[in-house]
Structure formats: C-alpha cells, structure tokens
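Readers of this paper often ask what the protein records in our data store actually look like. This encoding replaces a full spatial description with a residue-level series of whole-number codes. For reference, a complete record is included directly beneath this paragraph.
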Amino acid sequence: MQITVHGTPTLLEGKEMTIWREAPAARVTNLDGSQNVIGMIAPTAQLLIAIPSLKTEVCSLGAKKFNDLIKQFKKLKTVMITTDDASFVNDFVAREGIDSAEIVIDSARDFAKKYGLLISEGKLKDRLARAVFVIDQEGMISYKELVAEITDEVDYDKCIEAVDKAANFKKKGHDHENWMGV
C-alpha cells in the first residue's frame, strides 16, 4: 500500500485492513502513560481516527472538526490516535477543548502496523497515515478511509454517515426468539 506525501509516493507498512474484516486489537498508550487496547468487539461502535501529527494545520483542524461532529453520538467510542509526544497532546487537548474523543499515543506503533498505516520512509517515517475506521458492535470494520494524499482531509460526510449507521445499529435477534414470543 502507498499514499503520497506532498505528491511523493510513500510506502505504508503493516497489514491492510478491508471492510467487513474483524478489527484487530491494538495496544496504545493513554495520555497518563497507562496502556489501553482499542479495536475489536466493544459494547458500542467505535470511530478510530489516525492522525499523523496534531502539530500540523490539517491534523489539528481535523481533530477539532471531528470533536464537534461526534458530539451527537452517545453510543460511540471515538479514539484519535497519533504518534505525537504526550506533553504536546495534553496541551492540545486542554487548549482546544477536545472533549468528545480520547486521544492516545501509538508509541509502539502497534496500531499503525496492525491497521496498515505506518509510514515507512521519508520525512514522516514512523508516523501514521491519515485514516478513519468505523467498527461496529460486532467488531467488524464497517467503514474505512485511507486518505491518498496526507495533506488532504477525510470525507467527513461519508464518515459521519457510516458512524450514524454503526452507532444506531440494533441487533435483530434470532428468528426462533421472535417465534417463541421472547
């Protein structure tokens, strides 16, 4: 897989994720230094947002925009993943009022490798490619967008539409339960 960075083709490392594939569990670091696991089956739908660096204009604007867009979804866990240092991210969260999402650090690049987003060369080596994943309550990837040019933004409308479907998904139950009047 590859993306472009300012027009230059750039290879990505890791396993490419596809729609309707089980979302892998990935270990990340919370801002307080504790470990956390994201992905896989969870009690609510998840929106995973890969952010190359909050120090750039496109990334910081994207984080703020997603923070506002997801406020309406009560049954959604949103995690923004970056490789920036924790002190900078803590300052960013406080300064920008990020309160609708967790921001975590992919310090060991576990998320980057398991989701096929690790930039393997150039000036952004060891950073994340810009991407979003929506994971339904069954732990399946129901939406994915890997942005082809790192300086471009994601398609917020398509992403929020996918989030709406996943966050408001109601399990149907089994036919025999309906037949039995359960």
